[in-house]
Design brief:
four-stranded mixed beta sheet, 146 residues, globular, alpha/beta, Collagenase (Catalytic Domain), 50% helix
Length: 146
């Protein structure tokens, strides 16, 4: 597996190696091949907003953008949005970030969340994966402590 994680949003200290480990477990849960190539980049709202406008036509920040680049998948995640949503939904930031990783991977696998029926199917799948993942590993190390 070739998994590369980068954190370009320095407001949130993310343990990239730990995220790589989590992604490998998620891909095993999903029974994806070991030659999977995946890049995950954590960004700020200011960086993801123009990308969302360019590629999705929405002039606002978003939580996750996924791109199938042929031989490689790319997932862009706003860690700023994850922090806001963790407060709104009263969940740990670590869990929200991992949920976004799962969400991005599911998009790359063809899941969609535009229509209510598809969104329900996708959310059930991501909750199931999160539950299986949490049974295998503690998410407490996602964020690096200062």
């Amino acid at each position: 597996m070739n998994i590369v994680v980068s954190n370009l949003n320095k407001k949130h200290r993310i343990d990239e190696k730990f995220i790589e480990k989590i992604v490998a477990i998620i891909l095993k849960i999903l029974k994806k091949s070991s030659n999977t190539k995946l890049e995950i980049v954590f960004l700020s709202d200011n960086v993801i907003k123009p990308l969302n406008k360019r590629y999705k036509g929405a002039n606002c920040a978003t939580d996750v953008l996924s791109f199938d680049l042929g031989s490689c998948g790319q997932i862009l995640i706003s860690s700023d949005m994850a922090l806001r949503n963790s407060r709104v939904f009263n969940t740990p930031l670590e869990k929200e970030l991992v949920l976004y990783v799962i969400h991005g991977i599911l998009h790359l696998l063809g899941y969609d969340d535009e229509k209510p029926k598809d969104r329900s199917r996708m959310f059930r799948k991501q909750d199931s994966i999160l539950e299986m993942l949490c049974a295998k590993i503690s998410l407490s190390k996602v964020l690096m402590r200062r």
